[in-house]
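Bumping my old thread because nobody answered last time. Still need a sequence for this structure:
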């Protein structure tokens, strides 16, 4: 017998990033600038807290929404860092990574036929998530000349005034763009005027290199229409522990929790102990990692400029987004630089409209490898000039 796959599953193409990792896996001399995860291990204090919880036999489920002390710590943290006020009992849910929170939101708020506008280029999971929920994706391209920031003009041009939901991701994966408060304000106004619900993925909020992050939920009238996603994967280098959270109005978080309690029960318990400690005592570790990312960012940007590849000044996350030289598509460049020089990068097209002709370069890699990778890219560009 063969399985009859659902239309929704068949509609979604396989991840465009994986193909490059498969080529990279075939050889052992490849330097990967392709992956979107920290090269640092989780800070020791958080690891110790996880170990201690295991030693004490704390291996049961937690409350569906997450341990109450963790939710309280999250409420204090987001109030302190981002000026956001959420009630730990009703307005916060702890999830298995921000990924689960994003998926819960699509399933809780998108009906078949609803339109979900996505500012692109953007993280690859949003589009499939919308399709799995039965919604229609409306890409809203951002442009390099605007530093890949979302504009009201871009929203209007794409017809986002008719959408039901708007997805934002700033600091952005893959471009490294940020949205300072003055650029977010008109977007908030647009959302209020056209009655859009906003799903704001702020998982890179700690990773900014030109002033602190502002959340769209902090603008007047936005808290009641916004879900904020965040987590411990990036800032606290905890990708494998799978812990994230969502913030939003009580009824919205309640709806997400309804799905979560049937599908996940609760987020990983050991990781919740690590996360509590991470918020409690790992601020210096986070600052140290952000400092190192910033040094790498400056190095990578200046090397691309020396090589003669145009690159805009990425100011957040751990990515930059150079343009491929003339004569190549992004896909061709990525494939050939991998085969000829053993450097894995990701073509911008996989991140949606607006990503064409660009490469996503992750600098969550040590400086020595970055130096060698950039030398190899330089040699590749020189050979193909
Ligand atoms: N959102 C964005 C923008 C990301 O880049 C990633 C990870 N690549 C995630 C969410 C997923 O994060 P988590 O590990 O918390 O599921």
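Sorry it took so long. Here it is:
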């Amino acid at each position: 017998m063969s399985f009859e796959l659902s239309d929704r599953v068949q509609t979604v193409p396989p991840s465009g990033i994986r193909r490059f990792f498969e080529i990279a896996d075939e050889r052992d001399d490849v330097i990967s600038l392709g992956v979107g995860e920290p090269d640092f291990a989780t800070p020791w204090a958080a690891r110790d807290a996880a170990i201690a919880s295991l030693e004490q036999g704390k291996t049961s489920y937690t409350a569906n929404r997450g341990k109450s002390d963790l939710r309280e710590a999250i409420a204090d943290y987001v109030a302190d860092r981002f000026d956001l006020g959420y009630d730990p009992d009703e307005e916060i849910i702890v999830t298995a990574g921000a990924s689960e929170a994003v998926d819960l939101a699509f399933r809780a708020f998108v009906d078949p036929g609803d339109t979900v506008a996505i500012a692109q280029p953007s993280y690859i999971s949003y589009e499939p998530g919308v399709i799995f929920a039965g919604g229609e994706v409306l890409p809203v391209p951002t442009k390099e000349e605007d530093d890949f920031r979302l504009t009201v003009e871009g929203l209007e041009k794409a017809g986002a005034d008719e959408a039901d939901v708007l997805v934002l991701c700033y600091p952005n994966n893959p471009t490294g763009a940020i949205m300072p408060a003055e650029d977010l304000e008109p977007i908030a106004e647009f959302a209020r005027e056209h009655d859009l619900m906003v799903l704001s993925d702020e998982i890179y909020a700690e990773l900014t290199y030109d002033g602190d992050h502002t959340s769209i939920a902090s603008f007047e009238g936005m808290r009641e229409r916004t879900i904020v996603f965040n987590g411990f994967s990036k800032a606290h280098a905890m990708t494998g522990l799978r812990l994230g959270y969502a913030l939003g109005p009580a009824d919205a978080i309640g709806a997400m929790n309804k799905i979560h309690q049937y599908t996940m029960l609760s987020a990983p318990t050991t990781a919740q102990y690590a996360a509590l400690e991470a918020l409690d005592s790992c601020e210096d570790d986070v600052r140290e990692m952000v400092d190192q990312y910033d040094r790498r960012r400056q190095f990578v940007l200046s090397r691309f400029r020396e090589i003669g590849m145009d690159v805009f000044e990425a100011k957040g996350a751990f990515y930059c987004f150079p343009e491929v030289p003339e004569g190549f598509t992004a896909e061709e460049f990525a494939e050939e630089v991998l085969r000829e020089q053993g450097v894995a990068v990701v073509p911008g097209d996989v991140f949606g409209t607006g990503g064409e002709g660009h490469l996503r370069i992750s600098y969550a890699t040590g400086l020595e490898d970055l130096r060698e990778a950039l030398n190899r890219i330089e040699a590749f560009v020189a050979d193909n000039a």
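DSSP finds 13 helices and twelve strands in the chain. Let me know if any region looks off to you.
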